[in-house]
Specification:
The complex is a heterodimer of chains A (214) and B (227).
Chain A (H helix, E strand, L loop, with lengths): L4 E10 L6 H14 L11 H12 L14 E4 L13 H11 L4 E2 L3 E3 L17 H5 L2 E3 L8 E9 L3 H13 L4 E10 L10 E10 L5 E3 L1
Helix pairs in contact in A: 2-3
Chain B lengths: L1 E3 L1 H5 L4 H4 L6 E5 L3 H4 L2 E6 L5 H16 L3 E4 L5 H11 L4 E5 L12 H10 L1 E4 L11 H12 L2 E6 L6 H10 L4 E4 H4 L6 H7 L3 E3 L5 H6 L14
Helix pairs in contact in B: 4-5, 7-8
The chains are: A alpha/beta (214), B alpha/beta (227).
Chain lengths: 214, 227
């Protein structure tokens, strides 16, 4: 059954539109995160930099309690099937978080059928949480996690996260499930101010079955 | 001709890229093209159809207008059209060769190759001592996927060498687009298979999904301005 909502936190923001320099920079950073690139003057790829900064600032962050050594970190599957050795950034984020003692890796979700990528969907064909719920499988059920944190690279409308959380809730009904995205999308350039943007919000399922974020 | 590490051209490679990247490449031309703008590969058959040639021309013109650098493989057909249209439209182009830089294949592209080496950029992973072998072309296709921010398959049969680039782009997590006209061709099996693994459908009249996905610049990202 689908959850009506899901609490989430995000660390940075990006705007897919807009011509100002910060918006452009945010797009370069988002591409670099999705492509696992190493920024200038850094020794690790950008996901590693984000996790390092997260760890450095954790005590002052409004979502400090999302993390902890007993939190099970679940990487969010890609929207398609994966060949062997395919780049999967959420998995890398989870590995870095585990190294920094922000939680423990729990790779339990698998995409069993491809869904059309939301970035290329027309609004009326927008993917819904149910589309993800139906195409995701929970593979490991032996653990009894109290706290689960779904980890994704980029959050847009949250349908993937809400679909995944609903699936996890069925497998682990007692668990407290929340989500973290390294970067949150702010579609309207008028609302986009800066890249560093610590945010706590909620993914909400609408009556028409789509989802949006607060 | 200069021998360089790929890291010098595009910044440090990630673990996924290192698995198939050549240890070094030979370049001739303007290496700053690797920093100037987003790089998009146009790939397709050597025996191109008139529709494929027309779609390549339409696409290249629109990409050049957006200051996107056109990457292709300097083969006959789609590749030649992509490079020549980019030059004619006063854009920039990068050729990734399946031969050493001092060999010409096909021979009729000699002048085009020289023009690219002089005013644009040519890249090859094959040293001048190596011979021209058919097996080098699919290897070259994977390198093209590696240096491109996105790849577009314009047309390809079920056994085309272009498919190597498509699968490699998907493995690298790079956006891969297949033209709508190819996806609608029910005789082909590969488009549906690639869509299952993340390829997206693109119409030559609606390139917004491509433009939205590309970075604004080709340079290594700088995080100094994040806060």
């Amino acid at each position: 059954m689908l959850l009506p909502n899901l609490d989430f936190a995000s660390f940075w923001s990006y705007c897919p539109k807009g011509d100002n320099e910060v918006a452009k920079k945010s797009r370069d950073i988002t591409y670099a995160l999705k492509d696992d690139r190493t920024p200038l003057n850094e020794k690790v790829t950008i996901q590693g930099v984000i996790v390092r900064k997260l760890k450095e600032q954790i005590d002052s962050l409004p979502f400090k309690d999302f993390f902890g050594s007993e939190v099970y970190l679940v990487p969010v599957p890609k929207s398609s099937l994966m060949q062997k050795d395919t780049l999967w950034v959420p998995k890398k984020l989870v590995e870095s978080m585990t190294k920094h003692n922000l939680g423990r890796a729990f790779d339990c979700l698998e995409r069993i059928e491809t869904v059309t990528k939301s970035s290329s969907s027309h609004p009326k064909n927008r993917l819904k949480p149910i589309d993800h719920y139906k195409t995701i499988r929970v593979n490991i059920k032996i653990e009894r996690p109290e706290n689960i944190l779904l980890v994704d690279d980029v959050l847009t409308r949250g349908s993937t996260l809400l679909g995944c959380a609903s699936k996890l809730k069925e497998a682990f009904p007692e668990a407290n499930i929340r989500a973290f995205a390294a970067i949150r999308t702010i579609s309207n350039p008028n609302y986009f101010e800066k890249i560093e943007d610590f945010h706590i919000g909620q993914i909400v399922r609408s009556p028409d079955g789509t989802s949006s974020t607060t | 001709m200069e021998k360089v590490l790929l890291d010098e051209l595009m910044g440090p490679l990630n673990e996924t890229e290192k698995k198939s990247a050549p240890p070094e490449v030979y370049i001739e031309g303007d290496r700053n093209l690797m920093l100037d703008g987003p790089r998009v590969s146009l790939i397709g058959s050597r025996k191109a159809t008139p529709e494929g040639i027309n779609n390549t021309t339409l696409l290249t013109k629109q990409l050049v207008k957006k200051e996107i650098i056109i990457v292709s493989g300097l083969a006959e057909g789609i590749d030649t059209t992509a490079h020549t249209t980019a030059i004619k439209e006063k854009g920039k182009t990068i050729a990734v060769l399946g031969t050493p830089l001092d060999k010409y294949y096909p021979l009729q592209n000699r002048e085009l190759q020289n023009e690219i080496m002089k005013h644009h950029l040519a890249i090859s992973q094959f040293p001048s001592t190596s011979s021209v072998r058919p097996a080098n072309f699919p290897i070259r296709n994977r390198t093209m996927a590696l240096i491109s921010h996105a790849s577009i398959i314009i047309e390809a049969g079920d056994t085309s060498g272009s498919l190597h680039q498509g699968w490699e782009a998907l493995r690298l997590g790079r956006p891969l687009f297949i033209l709508e006209s190819v996806v609608n061709n029910k005789k082909l099996k590969w488009p549906q298979e690639m869509i299952k693994y993340g390829a997206m459908v693109l119409s030559v009249n609606h390139l917004k999904p491509l433009f939205e996905i590309l970075p604004a610049s080709g340079a290594q990202v700088n995080l100094d301005v994040v806060a």
